[in-house]
Amino acid sequence: MSSPLPGVQALLFDVFGTVVDWHGSVTKELERVGKQHSIEGDWKEFATTWQRGYDENTLRIAQGGKGPSSVDVMHREMLEDILTSEKWKALSDKLTSQARDELNLVWHRLDGWPDSTPGLYNLKKEVIIATLSNGNVRLLVDMAKHADLPWDTIFSAELFESFKPNPKVYLGAVKHLSLEPHNCALVAAHVDDLRAAAGVGMRTIYIPRPGEDVGVGEVKPKAEGGDVDVVVHSFEELVKLLAGN
């Protein structure tokens, strides 16, 4: 049986949701801050709203709109927007500018999914592993240290002056690895990201994660009539697939 990933020498990883559990990590931090100030709230909804603002703004900028190139700046702006809501006035009244800066840094210390760290260490033995994230460089470096993510290198959309799904982000990373697009595969829990990568000639690996790609339905590999090269359910499954190439 032929390999579904022939010639792949590098795996580029989406990070938020694919490698780290942003929703669980941010919710937990918001719960801690709420408890500290004796404030109750739907912290899961707060986290979702925060991330939604990030998604909307990165997509708008990727399509040629204006906005910050750093996700840190973007997240801070989104936090201010949320705190202006009457719903969160009690929290807003408690948080100084410094406290808001500190809360914003929660995005630097997101916890990995259980299979992420061991899986990445094993994948690293087979191929080059690198981020390909809309997160800014410092955020990705801090997150790697926090969650023990052993990247060979970090590619941030910040380096390419846009955001995914702009093609120049994918092609910029491929160029810096001195490879052709078909020698690189994007690993992501978001099918739209993978479709954009396939559009520039990269291979695609889908990994479903809890709470990600809500409403998309089952994603299938090309062998089963779908539009991604491979579907795996853990990084260890991907290790076994690559080891068998």
From TrEMBL:
It comes from the Eukaryota. One of its GO terms (molecular function) is phosphatase activity. Keywords: Hydrolase. SUPFAM superfamilies: HAD-like. Belongs to the HAD-like hydrolase superfamily. S-2-haloalkanoic acid dehalogenase family. PANTHER family: HALOACID DEHALOGENASE, TYPE II (AFU_ORTHOLOGUE AFUA_2G07750)-RELATED, HYDROLASE, HALOACID DELAHOGENASE-RELATED. This is Haloacid type II. It comes from Favolaschia claudopus.
